[in-house]
Amino acid sequence: MNREAWKPFLKRWSEEWLAVHDVEPRSAFEEPVTDDWLGFPPASAEQVAAAEARLGCVLPPSFREFLLATDGWRDAGLFVHRLRDTGDIGWLRDLDSPWAEDCDDIDDEGDEEDDAVILARSLQISLEADAGILFLDPGDVDEHGEWAAYELFTWRAMGPERHGSFYELMYDLYAGFHTLDRPQCQTQRDWDAKIEQARLASLAGEVDGPLAVLEEAARFGRDRAKILLFQMRAILGVGDAIELIDSTLRRGIEPTWPLDAPFLTAEVLPILFADHKRTARWRTQSTLVGLVKHGSEPVQRLIADYRARASEPGFRVRFGGADFDDAVHAAIADHTGDDAWPLLRDALSLWRPMSDDHLAPIALLADPRIARLITPERGREILTMRRG
After folding, report:
1. Are residues 150 and 234 in the same domain?
2. Are residues 263 and 316 in the same domain?
3. Secondary structure string (H, E, C) spanning the chain
4. Which residue of 139, 153, 287, 290 lies most exposed, with the fewest beta carbons within 10 A?
5. Low-confidence ranges of the chain (pLDDT < 70)
Protein backbone atom coordinates (compact mmCIF):
# COMPACT_ATOMS: atom_id res chain seq x y z
CA MET A 1 0.00 0.00 0.00
CA ASN A 2 1.94 3.06 -1.22
CA ARG A 3 1.09 6.67 -0.46
CA GLU A 4 -0.70 7.11 -3.80
CA ALA A 5 -3.01 4.21 -2.92
CA TRP A 6 -3.50 5.51 0.64
CA LYS A 7 -4.77 8.92 -0.51
CA PRO A 8 -8.05 7.91 -2.24
CA PHE A 9 -8.82 5.36 0.48
CA LEU A 10 -8.32 7.92 3.26
CA LYS A 11 -10.16 10.62 1.28
CA ARG A 12 -13.22 8.38 0.97
CA TRP A 13 -13.02 7.49 4.66
CA SER A 14 -12.84 11.19 5.56
CA GLU A 15 -15.84 12.16 3.45
CA GLU A 16 -17.97 9.31 4.79
CA TRP A 17 -17.01 9.98 8.40
CA LEU A 18 -17.64 13.72 8.18
CA ALA A 19 -21.05 13.09 6.63
CA VAL A 20 -22.22 11.62 9.95
CA HIS A 21 -19.85 13.15 12.55
CA ASP A 22 -18.80 16.60 13.63
CA VAL A 23 -15.06 16.70 14.28
CA GLU A 24 -13.78 19.40 16.63
CA PRO A 25 -10.11 20.13 17.39
CA ARG A 26 -9.06 18.41 20.60
CA SER A 27 -6.73 21.20 21.62
CA ALA A 28 -5.96 24.81 20.80
CA PHE A 29 -2.86 23.61 18.95
CA GLU A 30 -4.67 21.23 16.59
CA GLU A 31 -5.67 22.52 13.19
CA PRO A 32 -9.38 22.23 12.36
CA VAL A 33 -10.58 19.75 9.76
CA THR A 34 -10.55 21.28 6.28
CA ASP A 35 -11.33 20.01 2.78
CA ASP A 36 -13.12 16.90 4.09
CA TRP A 37 -9.83 15.48 5.34
CA LEU A 38 -9.37 13.73 8.70
CA GLY A 39 -5.65 13.65 8.23
CA PHE A 40 -2.83 16.17 8.36
CA PRO A 41 -0.17 17.36 5.93
CA PRO A 42 2.05 14.48 4.81
CA ALA A 43 5.31 13.82 6.60
CA SER A 44 8.44 14.58 4.64
CA ALA A 45 10.97 11.89 3.82
CA GLU A 46 13.30 13.65 6.25
CA GLN A 47 10.73 13.47 9.07
CA VAL A 48 10.21 9.75 8.50
CA ALA A 49 13.97 9.17 8.37
CA ALA A 50 14.40 11.09 11.63
CA ALA A 51 11.71 9.00 13.30
CA GLU A 52 13.38 5.80 12.11
CA ALA A 53 16.75 7.00 13.39
CA ARG A 54 15.22 7.83 16.78
CA LEU A 55 13.51 4.44 17.01
CA GLY A 56 16.47 2.50 15.65
CA CYS A 57 14.50 0.62 12.97
CA VAL A 58 12.99 0.89 9.52
CA LEU A 59 9.22 1.28 9.76
CA PRO A 60 7.03 -1.31 8.02
CA PRO A 61 6.07 -0.36 4.45
CA SER A 62 2.33 0.30 4.80
CA PHE A 63 2.82 2.45 7.92
CA ARG A 64 5.76 4.31 6.41
CA GLU A 65 3.76 5.12 3.28
CA PHE A 66 0.78 6.13 5.42
CA LEU A 67 2.91 8.73 7.19
CA LEU A 68 4.07 10.05 3.82
CA ALA A 69 0.38 10.50 2.94
CA THR A 70 -0.69 12.00 6.29
CA ASP A 71 1.41 12.59 9.39
CA GLY A 72 -1.19 11.41 11.90
CA TRP A 73 -4.92 10.76 11.68
CA ARG A 74 -8.13 11.70 13.47
CA ASP A 75 -10.92 9.28 14.30
CA ALA A 76 -9.80 5.87 13.10
CA GLY A 77 -13.23 4.49 13.92
CA LEU A 78 -15.44 5.27 16.88
CA PHE A 79 -12.94 4.17 19.53
CA VAL A 80 -9.60 5.47 18.26
CA HIS A 81 -9.62 9.27 18.41
CA ARG A 82 -6.10 10.03 17.21
CA LEU A 83 -3.08 8.27 15.73
CA ARG A 84 0.43 9.44 16.53
CA ASP A 85 2.61 11.25 14.02
CA THR A 86 6.31 10.93 13.21
CA GLY A 87 7.22 13.07 16.19
CA ASP A 88 5.53 11.00 18.89
CA ILE A 89 5.33 7.36 17.78
CA GLY A 90 7.42 5.42 20.22
CA TRP A 91 8.21 2.10 21.86
CA LEU A 92 5.41 1.32 24.22
CA ARG A 93 7.77 0.41 27.05
CA ASP A 94 9.34 3.91 26.86
CA LEU A 95 6.17 5.97 26.75
CA ASP A 96 4.36 7.44 29.72
CA SER A 97 1.47 5.05 29.18
CA PRO A 98 -0.60 2.87 31.51
CA TRP A 99 -0.11 0.10 28.99
CA ALA A 100 3.63 0.07 29.70
CA GLU A 101 2.91 -1.56 33.06
CA ASP A 102 1.61 -4.64 31.26
CA CYS A 103 5.03 -5.11 29.68
CA ASP A 104 6.37 -6.27 33.06
CA ASP A 105 3.92 -9.19 33.41
CA ILE A 106 5.98 -11.60 31.32
CA ASP A 107 5.49 -15.31 31.98
CA ASP A 108 8.97 -16.78 31.48
CA GLU A 109 7.69 -20.35 31.85
CA GLY A 110 5.08 -20.17 29.09
CA ASP A 111 5.65 -22.18 25.90
CA GLU A 112 4.07 -19.48 23.74
CA GLU A 113 4.61 -15.76 23.64
CA ASP A 114 2.18 -14.08 25.97
CA ASP A 115 0.68 -10.63 25.49
CA ALA A 116 3.23 -8.97 27.75
CA VAL A 117 6.12 -10.14 25.58
CA ILE A 118 4.50 -8.65 22.50
CA LEU A 119 3.64 -5.40 24.28
CA ALA A 120 7.18 -5.04 25.62
CA ARG A 121 8.71 -4.94 22.15
CA SER A 122 5.94 -3.11 20.28
CA LEU A 123 5.60 0.34 18.76
CA GLN A 124 2.63 2.35 19.98
CA ILE A 125 0.88 4.20 17.16
CA SER A 126 -2.32 5.41 18.87
CA LEU A 127 -2.34 8.68 20.83
CA GLU A 128 -5.93 8.74 22.12
CA ALA A 129 -8.33 5.79 22.26
CA ASP A 130 -11.30 4.62 24.32
CA ALA A 131 -9.62 2.43 26.95
CA GLY A 132 -7.53 0.93 24.20
CA ILE A 133 -4.35 1.03 22.21
CA LEU A 134 -3.03 0.31 18.70
CA PHE A 135 0.49 -1.04 18.25
CA LEU A 136 2.83 -2.71 15.75
CA ASP A 137 4.96 -5.76 16.55
CA PRO A 138 8.48 -5.80 15.04
CA GLY A 139 8.90 -9.38 16.23
CA ASP A 140 6.23 -10.62 13.84
CA VAL A 141 7.23 -9.71 10.28
CA ASP A 142 5.94 -11.18 7.01
CA GLU A 143 7.77 -11.71 3.71
CA HIS A 144 6.92 -8.16 2.60
CA GLY A 145 8.42 -6.57 5.70
CA GLU A 146 5.03 -5.80 7.22
CA TRP A 147 4.77 -5.95 11.00
CA ALA A 148 1.75 -7.52 12.63
CA ALA A 149 -0.63 -4.83 13.90
CA TYR A 150 -2.82 -5.08 16.99
CA GLU A 151 -5.82 -3.41 18.59
CA LEU A 152 -6.46 -3.93 22.29
CA PHE A 153 -9.45 -2.58 24.23
CA THR A 154 -10.09 -3.44 27.86
CA TRP A 155 -13.88 -3.33 27.47
CA ARG A 156 -13.76 -6.23 25.01
CA ALA A 157 -12.59 -8.56 27.80
CA MET A 158 -10.25 -10.36 25.41
CA GLY A 159 -6.63 -10.22 24.37
CA PRO A 160 -5.09 -8.19 21.54
CA GLU A 161 -6.66 -8.69 18.11
CA ARG A 162 -4.01 -9.36 15.46
CA HIS A 163 -3.92 -8.08 11.89
CA GLY A 164 -1.34 -8.90 9.26
CA SER A 165 -0.22 -5.31 8.70
CA PHE A 166 -0.96 -1.70 9.56
CA TYR A 167 -3.06 -1.41 6.41
CA GLU A 168 -5.16 -4.44 7.40
CA LEU A 169 -5.70 -2.88 10.83
CA MET A 170 -6.85 0.41 9.29
CA TYR A 171 -9.11 -1.39 6.84
CA ASP A 172 -10.71 -3.29 9.72
CA LEU A 173 -11.28 -0.04 11.64
CA TYR A 174 -12.83 1.47 8.51
CA ALA A 175 -15.14 -1.53 8.11
CA GLY A 176 -16.04 -1.27 11.80
CA PHE A 177 -17.06 2.36 11.32
CA HIS A 178 -19.42 1.25 8.55
CA THR A 179 -20.86 -1.53 10.70
CA LEU A 180 -21.67 0.82 13.59
CA ASP A 181 -22.60 4.06 11.81
CA ARG A 182 -24.04 2.67 8.57
CA PRO A 183 -23.43 5.83 6.53
CA GLN A 184 -25.52 6.32 3.39
CA CYS A 185 -22.70 6.49 0.86
CA GLN A 186 -21.20 5.07 -2.30
CA THR A 187 -19.26 2.40 -0.39
CA GLN A 188 -22.50 0.91 0.91
CA ARG A 189 -24.10 1.07 -2.52
CA ASP A 190 -21.08 -0.64 -4.03
CA TRP A 191 -21.37 -3.45 -1.51
CA ASP A 192 -25.08 -3.85 -2.20
CA ALA A 193 -24.33 -4.30 -5.91
CA LYS A 194 -21.65 -6.89 -5.12
CA ILE A 195 -24.05 -8.72 -2.79
CA GLU A 196 -26.60 -9.07 -5.60
CA GLN A 197 -23.90 -10.34 -7.96
CA ALA A 198 -22.81 -12.86 -5.31
CA ARG A 199 -26.42 -14.02 -4.86
CA LEU A 200 -26.83 -14.70 -8.57
CA ALA A 201 -23.45 -16.43 -8.74
CA SER A 202 -24.39 -18.66 -5.81
CA LEU A 203 -27.70 -19.66 -7.42
CA ALA A 204 -25.68 -20.52 -10.54
CA GLY A 205 -23.62 -23.00 -8.50
CA GLU A 206 -20.57 -21.00 -7.42
CA VAL A 207 -19.51 -21.38 -3.79
CA ASP A 208 -16.18 -19.90 -2.72
CA GLY A 209 -16.42 -16.63 -4.66
CA PRO A 210 -19.86 -15.68 -3.29
CA LEU A 211 -18.81 -16.74 0.20
CA ALA A 212 -15.80 -14.38 0.09
CA VAL A 213 -17.89 -11.44 -1.15
CA LEU A 214 -20.65 -11.97 1.41
CA GLU A 215 -18.16 -12.35 4.26
CA GLU A 216 -16.51 -9.05 3.34
CA ALA A 217 -19.84 -7.26 2.88
CA ALA A 218 -20.96 -8.52 6.29
CA ARG A 219 -17.87 -6.85 7.80
CA PHE A 220 -19.28 -3.56 6.48
CA GLY A 221 -22.61 -4.04 8.25
CA ARG A 222 -24.68 -5.09 5.23
CA ASP A 223 -27.39 -7.19 6.82
CA ARG A 224 -28.56 -8.75 3.59
CA ALA A 225 -25.07 -10.18 3.19
CA LYS A 226 -25.41 -11.76 6.64
CA ILE A 227 -28.80 -13.28 5.72
CA LEU A 228 -27.38 -14.81 2.54
CA LEU A 229 -24.14 -15.85 4.23
CA PHE A 230 -26.09 -17.53 7.02
CA GLN A 231 -27.82 -19.75 4.47
CA MET A 232 -24.60 -20.81 2.75
CA ARG A 233 -22.80 -21.47 6.03
CA ALA A 234 -25.75 -23.36 7.48
CA ILE A 235 -25.90 -25.72 4.49
CA LEU A 236 -22.11 -26.17 4.72
CA GLY A 237 -22.41 -27.08 8.40
CA VAL A 238 -20.40 -24.12 9.69
CA GLY A 239 -20.96 -23.99 13.45
CA ASP A 240 -21.23 -20.22 13.87
CA ALA A 241 -23.73 -19.68 11.04
CA ILE A 242 -26.65 -18.99 13.34
CA GLU A 243 -24.79 -16.13 15.04
CA LEU A 244 -25.25 -14.11 11.84
CA ILE A 245 -29.00 -14.24 12.34
CA ASP A 246 -28.68 -13.19 15.96
CA SER A 247 -26.66 -10.07 15.13
CA THR A 248 -28.97 -9.10 12.27
CA LEU A 249 -32.38 -9.33 13.94
CA ARG A 250 -31.68 -7.70 17.31
CA ARG A 251 -33.03 -4.26 18.12
CA GLY A 252 -30.81 -1.28 18.80
CA ILE A 253 -28.99 -1.05 15.46
CA GLU A 254 -30.54 0.51 12.39
CA PRO A 255 -30.99 -2.41 9.98
CA THR A 256 -29.77 -2.28 6.39
CA TRP A 257 -32.05 -5.18 5.35
CA PRO A 258 -35.81 -4.67 4.91
CA LEU A 259 -37.33 -7.48 6.94
CA ASP A 260 -38.53 -10.29 4.66
CA ALA A 261 -41.20 -11.65 7.01
CA PRO A 262 -42.47 -14.56 4.84
CA PHE A 263 -38.93 -15.82 4.26
CA LEU A 264 -38.05 -15.43 7.94
CA THR A 265 -41.17 -17.34 9.02
CA ALA A 266 -40.88 -20.14 6.46
CA GLU A 267 -37.13 -20.74 6.42
CA VAL A 268 -35.30 -19.17 9.36
CA LEU A 269 -37.63 -19.61 12.33
CA PRO A 270 -37.93 -23.40 11.86
CA ILE A 271 -34.13 -23.60 12.19
CA LEU A 272 -34.08 -21.36 15.27
CA PHE A 273 -36.75 -23.47 16.98
CA ALA A 274 -34.94 -26.70 16.07
CA ASP A 275 -31.63 -25.25 17.31
CA HIS A 276 -33.27 -24.23 20.58
CA LYS A 277 -34.71 -27.70 21.10
CA ARG A 278 -31.42 -29.42 20.23
CA THR A 279 -29.16 -27.27 22.40
CA ALA A 280 -31.42 -26.40 25.35
CA ARG A 281 -29.69 -28.95 27.59
CA TRP A 282 -26.21 -27.45 27.40
CA ARG A 283 -26.58 -23.82 26.27
CA THR A 284 -27.57 -21.17 28.78
CA GLN A 285 -29.40 -19.20 26.09
CA SER A 286 -30.22 -20.14 22.53
CA THR A 287 -30.38 -17.66 19.67
CA LEU A 288 -34.16 -18.03 19.74
CA VAL A 289 -34.36 -17.05 23.41
CA GLY A 290 -32.04 -14.13 22.77
CA LEU A 291 -34.31 -12.83 20.03
CA VAL A 292 -37.41 -13.31 22.17
CA LYS A 293 -35.75 -11.02 24.71
CA HIS A 294 -33.81 -8.64 22.52
CA GLY A 295 -35.07 -8.98 18.95
CA SER A 296 -36.77 -6.13 17.15
CA GLU A 297 -40.52 -5.83 17.73
CA PRO A 298 -41.47 -7.25 14.30
CA VAL A 299 -39.18 -10.23 14.90
CA GLN A 300 -40.66 -10.85 18.35
CA ARG A 301 -44.17 -10.85 16.84
CA LEU A 302 -43.15 -13.32 14.13
CA ILE A 303 -41.66 -15.64 16.75
CA ALA A 304 -44.79 -15.49 18.88
CA ASP A 305 -47.03 -16.21 15.87
CA TYR A 306 -44.85 -19.13 14.79
CA ARG A 307 -44.81 -20.61 18.29
CA ALA A 308 -48.61 -20.46 18.41
CA ARG A 309 -48.97 -22.23 15.05
CA ALA A 310 -46.30 -24.81 15.92
CA SER A 311 -48.29 -25.82 19.00
CA GLU A 312 -51.40 -26.66 16.97
CA PRO A 313 -52.18 -30.35 16.28
CA GLY A 314 -50.88 -31.61 12.97
CA PHE A 315 -48.35 -28.81 12.48
CA ARG A 316 -45.31 -29.70 10.41
CA VAL A 317 -42.52 -27.71 8.82
CA ARG A 318 -42.95 -27.14 5.11
CA PHE A 319 -39.74 -27.33 3.12
CA GLY A 320 -40.78 -25.12 0.23
CA GLY A 321 -43.20 -25.25 -2.69
CA ALA A 322 -45.71 -28.10 -2.85
CA ASP A 323 -43.78 -30.26 -5.35
CA PHE A 324 -40.50 -29.95 -3.46
CA ASP A 325 -42.16 -30.42 -0.08
CA ASP A 326 -43.90 -33.61 -1.25
CA ALA A 327 -40.69 -34.98 -2.76
CA VAL A 328 -38.72 -34.35 0.43
CA HIS A 329 -41.32 -36.00 2.65
CA ALA A 330 -41.45 -38.96 0.28
CA ALA A 331 -37.65 -39.27 0.39
CA ILE A 332 -37.54 -39.55 4.16
CA ALA A 333 -40.80 -41.42 4.72
CA ASP A 334 -39.70 -44.94 3.78
CA HIS A 335 -35.92 -44.67 3.98
CA THR A 336 -33.50 -44.38 6.86
CA GLY A 337 -29.95 -43.07 7.07
CA ASP A 338 -27.94 -42.54 3.90
CA ASP A 339 -30.47 -44.47 1.80
CA ALA A 340 -32.58 -41.32 1.71
CA TRP A 341 -29.81 -39.08 0.37
CA PRO A 342 -30.06 -40.02 -3.36
CA LEU A 343 -33.81 -39.36 -3.28
CA LEU A 344 -33.33 -36.08 -1.43
CA ARG A 345 -30.66 -35.01 -3.89
CA ASP A 346 -33.00 -35.74 -6.80
CA ALA A 347 -35.76 -33.76 -5.09
CA LEU A 348 -33.53 -30.67 -5.01
CA SER A 349 -34.17 -30.13 -8.73
CA LEU A 350 -37.70 -29.10 -7.71
CA TRP A 351 -36.58 -26.45 -5.20
CA ARG A 352 -37.23 -22.80 -5.99
CA PRO A 353 -36.30 -19.71 -3.93
CA MET A 354 -39.31 -18.00 -2.39
CA SER A 355 -37.79 -14.50 -2.64
CA ASP A 356 -34.64 -12.61 -3.56
CA ASP A 357 -33.37 -13.22 -0.02
CA HIS A 358 -33.66 -17.00 -0.38
CA LEU A 359 -30.46 -18.74 -1.44
CA ALA A 360 -30.67 -22.38 -0.30
CA PRO A 361 -33.24 -24.89 1.06
CA ILE A 362 -32.27 -24.24 4.67
CA ALA A 363 -35.65 -25.31 6.10
CA LEU A 364 -34.42 -28.87 5.51
CA LEU A 365 -32.08 -28.39 8.48
CA ALA A 366 -35.06 -27.99 10.82
CA ASP A 367 -35.77 -31.74 10.50
CA PRO A 368 -33.16 -33.71 12.48
CA ARG A 369 -33.46 -36.68 10.10
CA ILE A 370 -32.52 -34.51 7.13
CA ALA A 371 -29.97 -32.44 9.04
CA ARG A 372 -28.01 -35.63 9.73
CA LEU A 373 -27.94 -36.44 6.02
CA ILE A 374 -26.53 -33.06 4.96
CA THR A 375 -22.86 -33.40 5.81
CA PRO A 376 -20.53 -30.51 4.94
CA GLU A 377 -19.53 -32.38 1.76
CA ARG A 378 -23.15 -32.86 0.74
CA GLY A 379 -23.91 -29.28 1.67
CA ARG A 380 -21.24 -28.14 -0.78
CA GLU A 381 -22.75 -30.47 -3.37
CA ILE A 382 -26.12 -28.75 -2.86
CA LEU A 383 -24.56 -25.32 -3.31
CA THR A 384 -22.79 -26.35 -6.53
CA MET A 385 -26.15 -27.21 -8.11
CA ARG A 386 -27.89 -24.58 -10.21
CA ARG A 387 -30.79 -23.66 -7.98
CA GLY A 388 -34.07 -22.06 -8.98
Report:
1. no
2. yes
3. CCHHHHHHHHHHHHHHHHCCCCCCCCCCCCCCCECCECECCCCCHHHHHHHHHHHCCCCCHHHHHHHHHCCCEECCCCCEEEECCCCCCEEHHHCCCHHHHHHHCCCCCCCCCCHHHHHHHCEECEEEECCEEEEEEEEEECCCCCEEEEEEEHHHCCCCEEECCHHHHHHHHHHHHHHHHCCCCHHHHHHHHHHHHHHHHHHCCCCHHHHHHHHHHHHCCCHHHHHHHHHHHHHCCCCCHHHHHHHHHECCCCCCCCCCHHHHHHHHHHHHHHHHHHHCCCCCCCHHHHHHHHECHHHHHHHHHHHHHHCCCCCCCCCCCHHHHHHHHHHHHCCCHHHHHHHHHHHHHHCCCCCCCCCCCHHHHHCHHHHHHCCHHHHHHHHHCCCC
4. 139
5. 24-34, 97, 100-113, 280-284, 336
